[in-house]
Design a protein that fits this description.
The protein is an alpha/beta fold. The chain has two domains: about 10-125 and about 290-300, Rossmann fold, CATH 3.40.50.1370; about 130-285, Aspartate/ornithine carbamoyltransferase (Rossmann fold, 3-Layer(aba) Sandwich). About 40% of the residues lie in helices and about 15% in strands. The protein has twelve helices and nine strands. It has helices at about 15-25, 50-60, 85-95, 105-115, 130-140, 160-170, 185-200, 210-215, 235-240, 245-250, 275, 285-300; strands spanning about 40-45, 65-70, 95-100, 120, 150-155, 175, 205, 220, 260. The protein has a five-stranded parallel β-sheet. It has a four-stranded parallel β-sheet with strand order 2-1-3-4, sandwiched between helices. Strand 5, helix 6 and strand 6 (about 175) form a beta-alpha-beta unit. The relative contact order is 0.16. The chain binds phosphoric acid mono(formamide)ester (CP) and norvaline.
């Protein structure tokens, strides 16, 4: 059976279960898994990547499979072959596809035309696989998820959208603070609010970063300029400086608060060196957990095939 992971909501039924599997696989790092043996993962990356690429590649290798890194410019895709033909061809040759795309519409088109699972490795709408690593890290630090208070400060982007969904699904109370006009889109906020009320947590969207950080158990930020937005650098950097995660902002958070960032990070822009390199930062655990969570996801999808 083909199962696509295009949004956090595609893991609605088993998000926490996947974290449990990731914790187990973290303890048996080099153990092969029979469902992965000789299976092949194709990874199409329209944008750069360090963590997503390396974690998927290492994960697939460690569980006994193989992976292919495909740059669209080296494929016929770059010369006008359609996404749908590409999906159909790859479906005849490999077992699962991870796709990092500029546009979510292309992600959906690939998934619609592939007969094998498609994993969203980031697009303009969400970054679902990042969430497994983030919430696994929170679970490791606190021993539970339900009832935690997570504050995201910065741009209402793909990562913020996925954080809204993942928080709502796990009973984490989420506050998002962005400059005016950069809030996450209404569709994500209302869906997350609806889910949060079902799972017993809250969603708040604010413009005041200090207020948002008050009492937080975890403070999360991401780049202000996402890949593909380089032409917005000047206006955004000026506007977002008030949303920097610095020592003053962290002082608002709870005594046990941790700092998260999906990385790559820009020191002295969205976060100060004192915070990201300080004792509360768990960003490298978070990065490592990309490996264990990617592995869990691959095992889960391949065992259905
Ligand atoms: N966090 C993340 O997805 O990093 P990469 O862009 O390096 O894959
Ligand atoms: N919001 C960032 C995340 C990078 C992992 C981007 O889309 O570039």
């Amino acid at each position: 059976m083909k199962r696509d992971i295009l949004s956090v909501l595609d893991m609605k039924e088993d998000f926490e279960d996947l974290i449990g599997l990731s914790l187990k696989l973290k303890r048996s790092r080099y153990e092969e898994v029979s469902s992965a043996k000789n299976r092949v993962l194709a990874m199409i990356f329209e944008k750069p990547s360090t963590r997503t690429r390396v974690s998927f590649e290492s994960a697939m290798r460690q569980i006994g499979g193989h992976s292919l890194y495909l740059n669209p410019n080296d494929m016929q895709l770059g010369r006008g072959e359609t996404i749908s033909d590409t999906a159909k061809v790859l479906s005849r040759m490999v077992d699962v596809i991870a796709y990092r795309a500029f546009e979510h519409t292309k992600m959906m088109e690939l998934a619609r035309n592939a007969t094998i699972p498609v994993i969203n490795a980031l697009d303009d709408s969400e970054h679902p696989v990042q969430m497994l690593a983030d919430f696994m890290t929170l679970y490791e630090k606190f021993g539970n998820l339900k009832g935690l208070n997570l504050t995201y400060v910065g741009d209402g982007n793909n990562v913020a959208n996925s954080l809204l969904y993942a928080s709502a699904l796990t009973g984490v109370n989420i506050r998002v603070a962005t400059p005016e006009g950069y809030e996450p889109k209404k569709e994500y906020v209302s869906k997350a609010t609806e889910l949060a009320s079902r799972y017993g947590s809250s969603v708040e969207i604010l413009n005041d970063p200090l207020k948002a950080a008050k009492g937080a158990d975890a403070v999360y930020t991401d780049v202000w300029i996402s890949m593909g937005e380089e032409n917005q650098r000047q206006e955004k950097e000026k506007l977002f400086i008030k949303y920097q995660v610095n020592e003053k902002l962290m002082a608002q958070a709870s005594d046990r608060a941790v700092f998260l960032h999906c990385l790559p990070a820009h020191r002295n822009l969205e976060v100060t060196p004192g915070v990201i390199d300080g004792v509360r930062s768990v960003v490298f655990d978070e990065a490592e957990n990309r490996l264990h969570t990617e592995k869990a996801l691959l095992v889960r999808l391949l065992s259905l095939q």
